[in-house]
Amino acid sequence: MTQKRQLLIDTALELFYQKGVNTIGINEILKVSGVAKKTLYNHFESKEALTIATLEQRHRLFIEWLTVKLAGANSDQDVIYRLFTALEDWISNSDPKLGSFRGCFFINTAAEFSDQNCAISVYCREHKHHIRQVISQHMTNNNSLLLDAICIMKEGVITSAYVGHDSTAAGKCIEILKQY
């Protein structure tokens, strides 16, 4: 990957995550990155293609982060503790790997696109499916209901923290899920 392409992705991801995809125009990305419009279109055929590239980069980062956080879990309770503690650290901005917390980039981005079949919405949905697979791979029991509960609660924690400013939601989930 060329430096200019990476700079465009990094800049767009930062701006999209902070302000929303539809709020940010190509000209603002060019201004902040210092890259020429021709260079941008040599790398990306459209804003949609650039948006997909930002989703891909955030996806790789999040999967890597989650995999590290769940590594070594020796029980489903350990998976639950590690996952929700990691989310709590992200939400409180005490884990620099994911940057400053502004909710889920995939939820935020999907909410901006009403066409559930557009490439951006499909990518966001695939990301959520992959996250579920990563969590499942670390679980010791094949309990699909528990996996559903964990994944639904994970989404709820992120949304509650961002929209409701509830920094205690992750800890509550650990307590609720202790019975499993």
Brief rundown of the structure:
With 180 residues, the protein is an all-alpha fold. The chain is 71% helix and 0% strand. The chain is built from nine helices and no strands.
> Which parts are unreliable, with pLDDT below 50 for 5 consecutive residues or more?
none
Helix proportion of residues, in percent? over 70%
CATH class (first level) name: Mainly Alpha
Number of discrete domains = 1
In CATH, what is the homologous superfamily?
Tetracycline Repressor, domain 2
Number of helices: 9
User: What characteristic shape results from the CA principal axes?
Assistant: elongated
Series of H and E elements: HHHHHHHHH
Q: Could you name the CATH topology?
A: Tetracycline Repressor, domain 2
How many strands appear in the DSSP assignment?
0
Radius of gyration, taken over Cα atoms and rounded to an integer in Å: 18 Å
Largest sheet: none
Which class do the helix and strand fractions yield? mainly alpha
Amount of beta strand: under 5%
**What's the architecture, going by CATH?**
Orthogonal Bundle
- First and last CA, distance: 45 Å
